[in-house]
Every structure is written in structure tokens, then in C-alpha cells.
Design brief:
The complex is a heterodimer of chains A (about 150) and B (about 170).
Chain A lengths: L1 H25 L7 E11 L7 E8 L4 E7 L11 E2 L8 E7 L9 E12 L6 E9 L9 E6 L4
Antiparallel strand pairs in A: 1-6, 1-8, 2-5, 2-7, 3-6, 4-5
Chain B lengths: L1 H10 L8 H11 L7 H21 L1 H23 L8 H12 L17 H12 L18 H11 L7
């Protein structure tokens, strides 16, 4: 029995040693690099206090997957924003949040950070669309939405 | 010393001694009649050898098939897991369950502000309504728990950010 087990193990090792180089070099010729990067989303509300927002981000290159979402910098948006969990491991996400508090951000503020997994060396491109921005009374106002990539916020 | 004394005592016991006559009779009864010829001895030995060797030959293939099959299975498993993008069993199922959880049908009439689309402003309107303790409508009980509270606000907000609804 011991001899049989030893023979089986030896045979398995031999098969792996013989076949592994072939699959390693043949079926995956070049292993694409994988890296993680944040995308910081900003809204400039001007003089209006920002109480609610909703936006959509889509990566136009197929090599990007969303892996996480971080809340905004202002205390009014410290709680995790709303998003569909199905967006994780996808290239498109809709994010929204609101605050009923009195202390609301004005001007340019980081409302969320999206963490991405990028495969390959090509710099991804994004489409960012502001769906709505509103003040404390729920009145919509025009605002500017922008994003920044990289570690610096 | 004690042992010798005991044995002597035992030998002197009249009932346990064997008579010479009886001993000769036993020897005659169980002694071989005549010596076994060497060729018969060899034939018996050969027959015995063949008898015990045959089952081992029959099991030869079984002894090799089991470890060979196990080896092939281990090798295939190693190669499959070594490939890029291979997911361990159960991973796909876990991901699917996340998709299913979020893919639940949304509550109807979540367009609270009546502007023709469901967005975060509907949830915001409901939240402000609840915080101000204004009268609420029964149709805003989106999760059907008999209360209109923050959980209903969450239901509306999650309906607003669903990927497959199109904002």
C-alpha cells in the first residue's frame, strides 16, 4: 500500500513537471500586469450647499474592474454612499448620497473615491456623468463634477 | 531449588506417569509409514507455489490502476488551478449570490417627487419628510414592515442606484 502511494505521488509529480512548462508558455504567452488605483470624484457646488448628489462612472476600456467605494471627505458625506453591489467587479457604477444635516459642503469637495483593478499597461479612460446635485431643500442646481486619478487627493 | 523439588514431587505422582507400553503404541500409531519420495515432495511444493502466486497476478492491474488514476487526477487538478483566471469551486456561486441579492425587484412607485425618474432626490425627499415628522402615505412603506422609516429611505436609494434600471 505504501509502495502504491509512493508510486502514485511520483507519477503525479512527473506528469506535472512534464506538462506545466507547456501550459505555462503555450497557453499564456504574456501575463498582463495587474495594478490597483483610486479615482477621486469631486463636485464643485459653487456657493450652494451640497445636500444630495448622484453620478455615474463608466470605464470605457475593458480592462478595468471596480473593487471598492470610499465615502467623501466632508463629515456630511462620511457614511458609505449608496451603490449597487453588482457594480463591484464591473466597469460601471452609479453612486448617490444625501445628508439631512445642517453642516453641508460648499465649493469643491471630494464626494467619493472609487478603487479600481486595472489589467494591462494601457491608461484607462472614464466617462463621468452627474445625474443630480441638490441643496438642503431638494432643489436641483447646476454643478461641476470632475475626477482625479492617482494617490494624491 | 524449590522448582526441582516440586518437579520431583510431580514425577512421583502415580496417576500422571505414562507407561512405556503406552508410549510405544503412540509412536507406532503416528509415525510415518514410509518416507515421502523427493519428486512427490517437489510436486507438492510446486503446486502450492502456483496456487499462491496466481491471485497476485490477477490483482496486478488493480495494484497499478488505482495509483495511476490518483496520479492523473492530482496532475490535472494542479494544472487547472495553475491557470490564470481559474476560480476555486464555490467562488462563482458566491459572486452570483451577490448579483442576485442586488437584483431583487424594486418596490413600485419609488418616484416620490413625481418627476418621472427614480433618483437620490426621491430618497432625500422621503428622508426629510420622516425627519420633519410630516404625515406619511401608506404607499411609502416600500419594504412592507408596517413602518415608514429609514429602511424605506434605503430601499428607494438602492432603487435609484441600480445598474439595470437606466437613470
Amino acid at each position: 500500500m505504501k509502495r502504491s502511494a509512493l508510486t502514485g505521488l511520483t507519477a503525479a509529480c512527473l506528469i506535472v513537471m512534464l506538462l506545466a512548462p507547456r501550459t505555462g508558455k503555450g497557453s499564456r504567452p504574456t501575463e498582463p500586469s495587474v495594478r490597483f488605483a483610486p479615482v477621486h470624484i469631486y463636485i464643485d457646488s459653487g456657493d450652494a450647499p451640497l445636500a444630495a448628489y448622484q453620478f455615474e462612472l463608466r470605464a470605457t476600456t475593458s480592462s478595468v474592474k471596480i473593487v471598492g467605494v470610499e465615502s467623501g471627505e466632508h463629515p456630511a458625506f462620511n457614511d458609505a454612499p449608496y451603490y449597487d453591489p453588482a457594480a463591484l467587479m464591473n466597469d460601471r457604477i452609479i453612486i448617490a448620497a444625501f445628508s439631512t444635516g445642517a453642516d453641508l459642503p460648499k465649493g469643491r469637495t471630494r464626494i467619493a473615491t472609487i478603487h479600481l483593478q486595472i489589467t494591462g499597461d494601457t491608461e484607462p479612460r472614464y466617462e463621468l456623468k452627474l445625474t443630480v446635485a441638490a441643496d438642503a431643500d431638494g432643489r436641483e442646481f447646476p454643478a461641476e463634477i470632475t475626477f482625479e486619478t492617482g494617490e494624491d487627493q | 531449588m524449590l522448582m526441582n523439588e516440586e518437579r520431583r514431587q510431580f514425577d512421583n505422582e502415580p496417576d500422571l506417569r505414562i507407561s512405556e507400553r503406552f508410549s510405544e503404541d503412540l509412536s507406532r500409531l503416528f509415525a510415518p509409514n514410509r518416507p515421502v519420495p523427493p519428486d512427490i515432495d517437489r510436486a507438492v511444493a510446486e503446486a502450492a507455489r502456483r496456487h499462491f502466486v496466481r491471485p497476485e497476478r490477477r490483482l496486478w492491474w488493480l495494484r497499478w490502476t488505482v495509483p495511476a488514476t490518483a496520479a492523473a487526477a492530482i496532475a490535472i487538478a494542479c494544472l487547472w488551478w495553475a491557470q490564470p483566471g481559474a476560480t476555486p469551486p464555490g467562488a462563482q456561486q458566491r459572486y452570483s449570490s451577490v448579483v442576485n441579492d442586488s437584483g431583487a425587484e424594486p418596490a413600485t412607485s419609488t418616484d416620490i417627487d413625481g418627476n418621472g425618474r427614480v433618483d437620490i432626490l426621491d430618497a432625500f425627499t422621503l428622508a426629510r419628510h420622516i425627519e420633519a415628522r410630516r404625515p406619511t402615505e401608506a404607499m411609502w412603506d416600500f419594504n412592507g414592515d408596517g413602518l415608514i422609516d429609514r429602511r424605506d429611505v434605503d430601499t428607494v436609494a438602492l432603487a435609484a442606484v441600480r445598474l439595470n434600471k437606466g437613470v
